[in-house]
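Example 3.2
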Amino acid sequence: MPSPCRWGILGTANIARKNWKAIRLAGNSTLTAVASRDPARAAAFTAECQAEVPFPAPPAACGYDDLLRRADVDAVYIPLPTGIRREWVVKAAEAGKHVLCEKPCGTTAADVKAMTDACRANRVQFMDGVMFMHSGRLPLLRQVLDDGKTVGEVRRIASQFSFAAPAEFFGGNIRTSTALEPLGCLGDLGWYNVRFTLWVMNYGLPERVAGRTLAAHNGVPTEFAADLFFPNGVSAAFYCSFRTENQQWAHVSGSRGSVRVPDFVLPFHGAEAAFESDTPVFDITGCTFRMRTHPKRHAVGEYSDGAATAQEANMVRAFAERVLSGQLDDTWPAIALKTQQVLDACVASAAADGRPVPVAG
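Structure, written as tokens:
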């Protein structure tokens, strides 16, 4: 049996628990170490996760630098706060570790370029941790978008990703910290909106962006909306927020019909990932005005979470395959940088009271 990809987790953020399980389920991976600023915290985190999802050999608990020096770590997953992430991604690359990076990858495109340049220079893979990119639903959605008849020519993309945070969230969660997560909801949630839009557009960048911070806490965006304008006339809009209840839908409209994904980020619990297309027809006959809908459900068999077929396990498996093959894929760092470039334009536009600004390419 081939040797597995040996992982380390650099940080004990809550999302790391999900990827602990994904590493266990991937089939080509194992976890050898977990790091924290306080090794005792890493030990507590490891004990809790090991009790629920055990590895045959319990991962070691250590500090950040100690983990990067370990010879039994091939790849690191880095869920550290965005404000300090650049330093540790670069250090990981220089230590020869492949990097799966939480999002937003950096606070600016300059951060992300420094990270991806370091990974390229040290011949290690870089990928951002956008799980929906690894769902089996995406190839099916691409097939429908490209069939020429269901949607026709894409004209408009819209999406929303939001959750209503409780009062205590605004009192101490790092996602409202200027130093640790300065992009707030735009980075935490808007990254997904922008990535979905770029994916639909085959990663072509918009020419200009108009963005507005609709609400903020301590200078950090907690509600944000933006419009993106592409060279071919396609427009896109997204809304992300810590202030409105759970929504994560995406809608693509075209010259012949549309598709709607009600759960594009985190698939609703179940054994299928689905979306719906529609090609409505409007008839007028005399005094009768009739809009007829023709919905069609499209689905792939894929568990939403906690299974070997779930998108987070697919992500870990795909990353590990790159590591084990030695064949690096430049697509992932390129699209991470493009996503951050759009976020940079959103921030610049919001600072200019919503004036459209060009996207640096």
